[in-house]
Structure formats: structure tokens, C-alpha cells
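Regression test case RT-17, inverse folding.

Input:
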């Protein structure tokens, strides 16, 4: 667990809450919240595409990667990246994200259902988090080494890569 992650998470949560922007924590941080043990590299979260204009003016000084459409590392999405006190935060816009299936190479739409978020806690910071079943589902599709580690920890060793 990291104070740097905690501080950045608290900052982004307070900023998004102040603008009444719904968001959902995903990725490695969500895996950690659900019981995984990997070190958190970055804070990944999604917001609605329509809310980007509320957020961007408030984070302009922290932008390390501008809002754009990126296709990289098995992901096809619109996002922007922030750096807050040395902590990377990636904010993806939903809908429109696709992930590449490790087995077939097919692109699959990743749907973010904000209404299904569960309350998760990281060092006392409570945040809306992707349900563990959905997290495991998309990590199985991606099938990267880090995803298989997370799946193994979250399922007690049943890390099948089938979808």
C-alpha cells in the first residue's frame, strides 16, 4: 500500500465529487481494493465522455498525456493522463473503450456500468469500484501477465484465460 497512491486517489476523488462526476476505479488499483497484492503502478478510472469538459479545466496543470484517442497495449480508447505528486492517473472516457482479446486478437467493447459500482476502500479512501466479477472478466479477455496474476489472486487460483 502506498501513501502516494492514497494522496492522489483522494485528490482525484475530491475533484470529481466536487463536479458531481461519476467515476469507477478499474485496473490494478481495483484488483488491490478487491484483495490483490500487486504494487499499484497507476490509478485507472473511467468517467462518462460527456463529463470530460467538467474535468479538463481543473486538471490542466497536471496533464502528462493529453486527451486523445489511443490504441496501445491491447486498449483502444479515449483517455488522458495526469501526474499528481509523481503518481500517474489515467482517466478513460466511456463509452467507446475496446480491449483486444489475448487469444483471438478480436476487439471487444468494454462497457462501464457506473450504476453497478461497489464501494471499495484504499487506505481509508472510499471510491466507486468495478465489481470484482467484471474486473476478472475483462482481465481474462486481456490475458496479460499482470492480469493473470490479479485473476489468480482474486479467484484463489482459477486463472483460466477463457472468456
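Golden output:
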Amino acid at each position: 500500500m502506498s501513501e502516494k497512491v492514497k494522496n492522489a486517489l483522494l485528490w482525484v476523488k475530491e475533484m470529481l465529487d466536487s463536479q458531481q462526476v461519476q467515476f469507477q476505479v478499474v485496473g490494478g488499483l481495483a484488483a488491490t481494493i478487491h484483495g490483490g497484492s500487486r504494487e499499484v503502478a497507476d490509478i485507472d478510472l473511467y468517467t462518462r465522455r460527456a463529463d470530460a469538459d467538467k474535468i479538463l479545466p481543473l486538471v490542466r496543470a497536471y496533464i502528462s498525456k493529453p486527451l486523445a484517442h489511443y490504441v496501445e497495449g491491447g486498449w483502444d480508447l479515449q483517455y488522458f493522463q495526469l501526474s499528481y505528486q509523481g503518481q500517474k492517473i489515467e482517466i478513460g472516457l466511456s463509452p467507446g473503450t475496446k480491449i483486444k482479446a489475448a487469444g483471438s486478437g478480436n476487439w471487444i467493447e468494454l462497457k462501464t456500468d457506473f450504476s453497478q459500482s461497489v464501494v471499495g476502500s484504499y487506505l481509508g479512501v472510499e471510491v466507486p469500484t468495478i465489481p470484482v466479477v467484471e474486473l476478472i472478466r475483462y482481465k481474462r479477455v486481456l490475458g496479460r501477465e499482470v492480469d493473470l496474476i490479479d485473476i489468480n489472486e482474486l479467484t484463489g487460483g482459477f486463472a483460466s484465460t477463457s472468456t
